[in-house]
Write a structure and sequence with these properties.
alpha+beta; 7-stranded mixed sheet; 4-stranded antiparallel sheet; 21% strand; globular; binds ligand DP6
Length: 372
């Protein structure tokens, strides 16, 4: 198995005397919502089976990194001028992994400025957008340090490989449209080490799909992703789950190719219910759904039985992602406002849609965040 996608220029030892003193990098990277859920993993951050997601457009992280060459004593890493920022718990080990793989990064101290376009604890995966943005920043800093040109078609797969080490689902945030992470015979070049874009095998009607995020609760997560994934190591239904996810993948890929939204939505719903069934039936089972989650899911199904093309999916929490096609936008938005928003915390729901993937934040050096 391949162990690193990074070219020799990035992994070689370097003479610090030849490195630029300061490098800036800025990236905007989106979150994603899984239709086939990644749940359970093997070392090192490898999935038990392939997952599939839609990249979001409005929910993103913007990250700016200032790298300063140090003289052997790196300054403590800071996020938003805070050396004890809560995101450092996940980010610091990720940076350690990066510096082992790409030693030139060891020569630099990092100051990170980051912000999310969405409020916290709303059921939008900030680790996916945050880790993918950070991976892109570090890779562009390293390539600039060694004067290596990295066109996007090389950069994105490398960033996906790296982002996976920060958070599994983050590896699916590097491509626009739809993405698969995990080896499957159904998709050439798919593999466990990085995700690949699959939009070229998706019907164009699905590239404008909406995901309205209905914020049922803003309480912090009751189950961390890492604890949740761990339960799959000795889950009584693990084997059946792996088989089910593979069947769902076969079905959804066919439906996506045909543009069969009814089938795509039904499989996404089945996946969400399976995820929560796994959470509940694991040792020490947790209930992550709120009463309002159940009401909203049932209302969505009722509306569908009356002809409205609406479907739900969920992550490992109570908030509901409502999937609907662009052409029914005004009708669906009225339905949400009138019938679902009353079940949301402070009536909060966020309309998102299928997105274009990451983008570089230009002119970072002139950003006010970096003027000291
Ligand atoms: C339920 O990617 O957050 O959202 O790899 O431990 O960081 P780590 O887990 P994470 O897990 C996401 C799980 C999920 C399903 C999904 O996004 O596929």
């Amino acid at each position: 198995m391949r162990t690193s996608p990074f070219p020799a220029e990035l992994t070689a030892a370097v003479d610090p005397g030849k490195l630029p003193g300061i490098i800036f990098s800025g990236w905007q990277s989106p979150s994603n919502i899984a239709f086939i859920k990644y749940w359970g993993k093997r070392p090192l951050q490898l999935p038990l089976y392939p997952s599939l997601s839609m990249t979001l457009q409005e929910a993103f992280t913007q990250t700016l990194v200032e790298a300063t060459l140090h003289d052997g004593n790196p300054s403590p890493i800071m996020i938003n001028n805070d050396p004890a920022h809560p995101f450092l718990g996940k980010l610091a080990p990720f940076l350690d992994w990066f510096t082992v793989k790409i030693p030139v990064l060891n020569q630099y101290s990092f100051r990170i400025t980051t912000r999310n376009s969405f409020p916290h604890s709303t059921g939008i995966a900030s680790s996916a957008s945050g880790m993918s943005a950070f991976a892109l920043c570090l890779l562009t800093i390293a390539s600039e340090a060694v004067s290596l040109q990295l066109p996007n078609e090389h950069l994105m797969p490398m960033a996906s490989f790296a982002a996976r080490m920060g958070s599994g689902s983050a590896c699916r945030s590097l491509f626009g449209g739809y993405t698969v992470w995990g080896e499957t015979d159904l998709i050439p070049r798919s593999n466990d080490l990085e995700a690949i874009g699959i939009t070229h095998v998706v019907h164009p009607s699905l590239t404008s799909l909406h995901d309205a995020i209905l914020v049922i609760s803003r309480q912090p997560k009751r189950l961390s992703s890492s604890k949740g994934h761990e339960t799959m190591n000795r889950h009584p239904f693990a084997e059946a789950r792996i088989e089910q996810a593979r069947d769902h993948l076969t079905g959804i890929l066919q439906a996506m190719k045909e543009g069969n939204l009814e089938r795509v939505g039904s499989i996404a719903e089945a996946e969400a219910l399976s995820l929560h069934a796994l959470v509940m039936s694991a040792a020490g089972g947790a209930v992550l759904l709120e009463p309002a989650t159940l009401t909203v899911m049932n209302r969505i199904r009722e509306a569908r039985s009356l002809g409205l093309p609406v479907f739900f999916t969920l992550d490992a929490g109570p908030n509901v992602h409502l999937l609907y096609p662009e052409e029914n936008k005004s009708q669906v938005q009225r339905f949400i406002e009138n019938e679902l928003a009353p079940y949301c915390t402070d009536g909060l729901w966020i309309d998102d849609l299928c997105g274009a993937g990451p983008g570089r934040i230009e002119e970072v050096t002139r950003s006010p965040e970096f003027s000291s």
